[in-house]
Design goal:
Elements lengths: L1 E2 L5 E2 L4 E6 L8 H4 L3 E7 L8 H11 L8 E6 L5 H20 L12 H21 L7
Antiparallel strand pairs: 1-2, 3-4, 4-5
């Protein structure tokens, strides 16, 4: 079991790893070794996720989520397969942890009286500066 939060744990069988060749620099080595990891996690069918966490995770995933609801993370930052596996798993855990925390709704506030007065005063000052630039007829 992979512990994500005190209430959420993922079973290893829910994760699918594929090893692919990494893109980018690496010389001849990059053509021989499959060091990049493609981690797949089925968000919609996971029994480990509560419904509200699942909905927030789908929103957070964005383009990384397929039409079938599978989250695909590709890790190729490191040279070794093992470090890329850990990197992909860490990123998945971090995404689920972010989705597990409900966002605090924004409370609308009014500007203070002082801030309104300061805003109007600065507008008057700016207006008078621009008014001085205007050429009045007959005073040329």
């Amino acid at each position: 079991m992979i512990r994500v939060t005190p209430t959420i744990s993922l079973h290893e069988s829910e994760l699918e790893e594929r090893f692919i060749r990494a893109s980018g620099p690496g010389g001849q080595n990059v053509n021989k070794l499959s060091s990049a990891v493609q981690l797949r996690f089925d968000v919609r069918r996971s029994p480990s996720l509560p419904d509200e966490v699942r909905a927030r995770l789908e929103r957070l995933a964005g383009r990384r989520l397929t039409n079938e609801g599978v989250l695909v993370l590709i890790a190729q930052r490191h040279r070794t397969q093992e470090r890329n596996r850990q990197d992909a798993l860490d990123r998945l855990i971090e995404m689920i942890q972010r989705a597990a925390v409900a966002p605090i709704p924004r409370r609308p506030t009014k500007p203070t009286r002082g801030s309104r007065e300061r805003r109007l005063e600065s507008k008057k000052r700016r207006s008078s500066i621009k008014g001085l630039r205007h050429i009045k007829p007959g005073l040329e």
